[in-house]
Amino acid sequence: MRTALAIARKELSIYFTTPWAYAVFTAMVALSSFFFMGLLQSFQQAQEWAQAVGWNKLPPDLGAYRNLTDGVIVQLWGIVLIVTLFVAPFLSMRLFAEEKRNKTFELLMTTPVRPIELVLGKYLGGLGIISATLGLTILFPLILTAFGKSTSGAVLEWPTVLLGYGAVLLWGATCMAVGMFISSLTESQMVAALLTFVVLLPWMLLRGLAQGVEEPLRSFVNYMAFDSQLQNLIMGVLDLKALVFFFSVILFSLLLTHRSVEAQRWA
Fold first, then answer.
1. Quick one: which of 173, 182, 31 has its CA closest to 93?
2. Burial profile 60-70: b = 16 or more Cβ within 10 angstroms, e = fewer
3. Which domain holds residue 69?
4. Less Cβ around it within 10 Å: N or C end of the chain?
5. Nearest in space to 177 (alpha carbons), one of 191, 198, 203, 196
6. 70-123 residue pLDDT tens
7. 218 Cβ partners below 8 Å, 6+ apart?
8. Total domains present in the chain
9. What is the distance between the alpha carbons of residues 232 and 201, in angstroms, rounded to a whole number?
10. CA–CA separation, 235 vs 229, rounded Å?
């Protein structure tokens, strides 16, 4: 485990000594801020409309705007999930592909480092950078807590906020695991990023694609869709089935990466 942690520290130092990580940080903050301001504006308009005509006369889909948690933060987490879908492939693409492109992968395989330690170290490094990227988004609920106002108690329902934020981190961890496996298959970082996106996007949208499928296949496809598994967690509902699903995907991706590294070691 000490070797894996050393590899993770090396990966993090590489991330934070290159401008690429800071470009990703900037993009995440800029996009999240843009949508955050839009959600606040929509929330304010809904509140003003409700004060004028009453909540009973508003369309049912505006019911979420009764409070800042459902009207702003829960919807913001949904947007961050989509942004992560685009960001994570560019963070995971270099984990193994860069080693192969620089011809250091073969050298790494001659060192007394077991493949499992290499895989865990690389993943922990990737997990650290995606967590740092997504960690910036927790600023938005903190801003609402500091400057928001509520006539019915706390500004935000923090259990719901934190569970939704945990779902965002879990999604980021899953994207990094899948991306790392694909990165282990190629020496081109751009190909790794593109293939990761091509795999994650349809997987995310499986629920919509399954609408025309007959039972029991529809239930199975809905269960396999990332979107279906994230829905309850984002809304603040602890779903153990979803946790098992995501941890299974992460472990399976790590296992595939380990097998890929092992195969290339003896090739």
1. 182
2. eebebbbbbbb
3. 2-265
4. C
5. 196
6. 888 999 999 999 999 999 998 888 888 887 787 777 676 777 778 888 899 999
7. 210, 211
8. 1
9. 19
10. 11
